[in-house]
Amino acid sequence: MANPSQHTTQDSPQDTAHDLVPLDLSADVVTLTAALCDIESVSLDERRVCDAIEAALVPLEHLTVTRIGNTLVARTELGRDERVVLAGHIDTVPLTKAPANLPTRREGDDLVGRGTVDMKGGVAVQLKAALVTEPSRDLTFVFYEGEEIDSEHNGLLHVQQQRPELIADADFAVLLEPTASQVEGGCKGTLRVDVTARGVAAHSARPWNGRNAIHAAADLLNRLTAYEPATVTVDGLDYHEALNATGIRGGIAGNVIPDECVVTVNYRYAPDKSPEVALAHVAELFEGYDLVELDNAPGARPGLDLPAAKAFVEALGLPVIAKEGWTDVARFSAMDIAAVNFGPGDPNLAHHDDERCPVSQLVSAEAALLRWLA
Amino acid sequence: MANPSQHTTQDSPQDTAHDLVPLDLSADVVTLTAALCDIESVSLDERRVCDAIEAALVPLEHLTVTRIGNTLVARTELGRDERVVLAGHIDTVPLTKAPANLPTRREGDDLVGRGTVDMKGGVAVQLKAALVTEPSRDLTFVFYEGEEIDSEHNGLLHVQQQRPELIADADFAVLLEPTASQVEGGCKGTLRVDVTARGVAAHSARPWNGRNAIHAAADLLNRLTAYEPATVTVDGLDYHEALNATGIRGGIAGNVIPDECVVTVNYRYAPDKSPEVALAHVAELFEGYDLVELDNAPGARPGLDLPAAKAFVEALGLPVIAKEGWTDVARFSAMDIAAVNFGPGDPNLAHHDDERCPVSQLVSAEAALLRWLA
Predict the structure, then answer these.
(1) pLDDT at B16 (0 to 100)
(2) What is the full DSSP assignment across A187-240?
(3) Which residues in chain A are closer than 8 Å to B294, comparing Cβ atoms?
(4) What residues in B contact A295, CB-CB < 8 Å?
(5) Could you read off the pLDDT of A171-225 as tens digits, one per residue?
(6) Is A245–B214 a contact, with Cβ atoms under 8 angstroms apart?
(7) A301 touches A234 (CB < 8 A)
(8) Does B257 touch chain A (CB under 8 A)?
(9) Number of continuous H segments (helices) and E segments (strands) in chain A
(10) Given phi > 0 = left and psi -120 to 50 = alpha, else beta, which region is A79?
(11) How far apart are CA A355 and CA A363, in angstroms?
């Protein structure tokens, strides 16, 4: 091997011997998915599953493992021309209570339970890929905590902030979030603004002494409903933009003409636009109204024109579509690393009480990835 | 005198000797207004001012005084052909704190302080009229508590519920709420409804999987803004109807297409309409939407075609206009007693920190009323 196995840890003193759950990476991908799910790891409670993955990876001599909190980065150092990140989060949303949707169980062709879709199935595929000692490109595996909650807890963000060199040298990234085993390229950006219609307060028995801000907001809603969102082709993929009110509020009392009506608008924009361009577009649409930017996260280009991405898509031979929702691929994009989403499981079942994944998708996702790395 | 003075009390045991404030009804109306204002009587704290008025009325042998809580009814029993109610509330809204707008003070031609407009000035005019021993028609004075807060505390309502015979025999009522010494006839009714636009929730990155209820509410607001409210002439007075959104709410989270948007609509309707007709009118306008009635208080006809009302207007020789806001005249209307608003003070200054009343209005309102009763 080009590099001897190394193992460094920071931020998280080890105290694992007492409850370490053994993880057998040689098991088939379905068994491995079930084993990962059965180690409950709701956000902020990822230590046990992180310990288990770490203990399974450390003996693999072709990998250099670094731990940051409950996030692991495992790198091959084979001197290949190309380096690819395979990333997945190890936390889940909370379990359904009665009945709890763990431990996992088989129902026909489905593996059922919390995490089977979002995204222990993808993590199992990563781990199977981690067993490949001579992959066709260098690999950087990221297993990270805190994806399902506020971004301050996001382990991928922590790596970017604290040890960027561990991922910054990659040419391409695959995020193994559920896509029903299609390839979903990049992601749209998301901007939220408060748009305010103003009026003059008055008693509602004598409205002619005031000006109704809610009535004024009719024009604002009419601009929204008349708006025709664009479909923008970026690197060959069609991103469907969307502009929607996600909130509205106005009114002081039952007998008062309100002097203010606030509409919260969410603009989901194609990754050809910067956050600044997106904001200017919305400001132009709502010219004449007060506008306050609440948050604005850029999208990610799929980068399907890059050799690494092309090779990935060709090797998998699967349909490629645009990712409509915002995902952590945007964090790679911010580091100028093209990224796609590819993982087993129907994203519409993520977070559902009845979360379940067809075992055939687990098997085919593993097979596609291994084919590409062969 | 036709009737010896009588005095009965119910509901409120007397315990007044220790802090009784003497009230000199022989003082001029401006001095009397100031004295009434200086006995603070914010809603639910009317006992002291009620005690003072009661103590001043009981010695008047031409009046029969009944106390219900902190509400007083004082009646002449002269066997006249006609009986008129003169009613006013004795509570005020809370004082302004820094600086407190009491005690009253003179500023040029104005008497300044809490209650000067709403409506201790009117109460002072009532008390001056109560001194007339041989009025041209029988009089029923009502001095009542709890008008500025929830109607369960309203002393006029308590009289209607507990001792209706004390007022039910009247032909006409004058409510001495501030009208800047004009005569304001009747009042509009008021209906509030919640109108709900419905949709289907979805992720805001994929809105085509849902239907935006806030966008659907655009049509609802367009119906509101396109609505042309009627001006309805009732008994010779023009009532300007009004239809307004007084509240709007919708939205679940910043990334969710909302499935519900609720608009609270207030319809102020002319007193030719019953509450049922008003509701049907609004339901027709918002056909296709869910509609929930929140509250619905009928208006009051001015009854200016009735002999008692005609005589009042002719004697005063003042301009007569429609009352646009809802007032307690509607409580008389519900008992089939025509009623008008007539009192000193600009209603736009009611509840203001800088509440103030020109002394000329106090004097002219008293003079007009005494002219009519002569």
Answers:
(1) 46
(2) B-EEEEEEEEEE-B-EETTSGGGSB-HHHHHHHHHHHHHH----EEEETTEEEE
(3) 254
(4) 254
(5) 999 999 999 988 999 999 999 999 999 999 888 888 998 999 999 999 999 999 9
(6) yes
(7) yes
(8) yes
(9) 9, 20
(10) left
(11) 18
